[in-house]
Design goal:
The chain is α/β, with parallel strands linked by helices. It is built from 23 helices and 24 strands.
Amino acid sequence: MRTLWRFIIGSLAVIGATVVLITVIGFVIAIFGPGAAKSLPDRMVLRVNFEGELQDRRKSEVFLFEKQDLVLREVIMGLRAAATDERVSGVAVYMGGFRVNLSMAQELRAAIAELRGAGKTARLFTEDLGGMGGGSAAYYLASAFDEIWVQPSGGVGLIGLSMEIPYAGGMLDKLEVKPRFGQRHEYKSAVESMTGYGMSDPARENLQALLDSLYGQLVAGIAESRGFDEAEVRQLVDNGPYLAQEALEKRLIDRIGYWDEFIDESDSMAGEEAERVFLDDYLAGIDRPNSDGPKVALIYGNGTISMGGGDDGDGFEGGGFKAHRVADAFADAVDDEEVEAILFRINSPGGSYIASDIVWREVRRASAAGKPVIVSMGATAASGGYFVAMPADRVIAQPGTITGSIGVYGGKFVTEKLWARFGIAWDELHAGENAGMWSFIRDFPTGGEQRFREMLDFIYEDFTAKAMEDREMDAGQMDRIARGRVWAGKDALDHGLVDALGGYDVAIAEVKQALGLNADAGITLALWPKPRSSFDEVMKLLQGGGKPLAQIGAALFGEQEAGVLAEVGDRLGLSADDLELLKPPAGVLQMPPMRLRY
């Protein structure tokens, strides 16, 4: 009895402590959390820190004390609100270690231009713009500001764009592994990375054209912003990178100085009454745009497309682009009578054909049900990422969005000789002539290889047939733009793959037009499905078993355990993106692995 009594008392104590902990966390979040209203001064300078990696969307609310990455839509929202806010005299931006791709930079540049057009100042400070590394996209973004400051020890890494692709053919030869792949068609070069020794002529032609288009956009933007002609910018790029003093002499930057000098001058320009207000506090103190009017569901499709769903918070982060979760979000939005349209934000290199087809069907069903679907493309919407966009009512891309890649590839590796090198022999039994066709030990049986080729043909024909219907093209037009080609968004517009160029603002304008609203009418943009609250996140941890209190502590204080792979990557100067290049493809509708250096 005494042991039982101690167990009961101990259990009640743990339950009580847990309840108190949850209550305290909920109370603190309610008072100080992201949704808490902030009081704003009558005159202010908006402060924004461009650091780390810019995310296409917020992962989840999670916890108050966990550091969140910068989110593109929220930055755009803050800058555009500041443009019309009489209390805001300008924006002062710190840029440090900022990873940004061309399409995101284009969206930020448009918001900065709007701010400057409203008579507000936009000034940027950085210790270094990639002077000892690649900094072309960062400089492209910086050039949109009124004034660029660089620390005396820094520089400007304006050196252009490059693309690197790994090829594993030599490794397979050494391992005596035989690749057995097929592609549809010559420009679908992803398979070459796994089996070849270098770029094929069609791949080189297509990827160089893509790189040239992106480079042309970068040159044109810098020339317009800094008052150069394009030939001057190309010459500057060819002679880069630059030390800070050299960049100043070449008119690439405006000032050389330190952070304290930049802030002192920014405060002086704004006046004694002006206060510095950071972006998060500013967003918490204003009436957010797109929060009044007809409800529009905002659905994200980010990452590699794969089957399944699962409950991972908001259903989208942590596991890539899960087809069933995204499809269910569409179905729920269609069933919800309050939802009048859907904004589908896509940032995906593709993946599984079947998973892509699941989402394609739901996009088409939503449109047929009278709920217009507007697609906004991020950095990439290629292969399966383009497949799911095709049936939308309108498709919007940035000029720098990697688009298209209408093609297919697939196959397997034959490893019998590799095993024999280690003295391992595999024997086989089968019932059915093609039962072993997907064995990674032996080659295709004769009939199995024929069926494999026919399956690739079917998938390609299905992709192109749907694209022709969705984009209202004939077979000749489709053949000229498909066959696995990838396009920059600017060129995709010329070929009819997308309907307009721009970011969230253009996509929202298209939503209003589809709903018959005036351009200045309001809408309510609602994340769909609604993400779990911080309280729900706590409950999930508590219900998940293991060591819930330790997990809560890690989440609260942002502790991260560096794995061995991450440590090795850091020592070699590799990022997670570099290591991703070596992963097997998630499906047959996936664009080539590449490292695009901006």
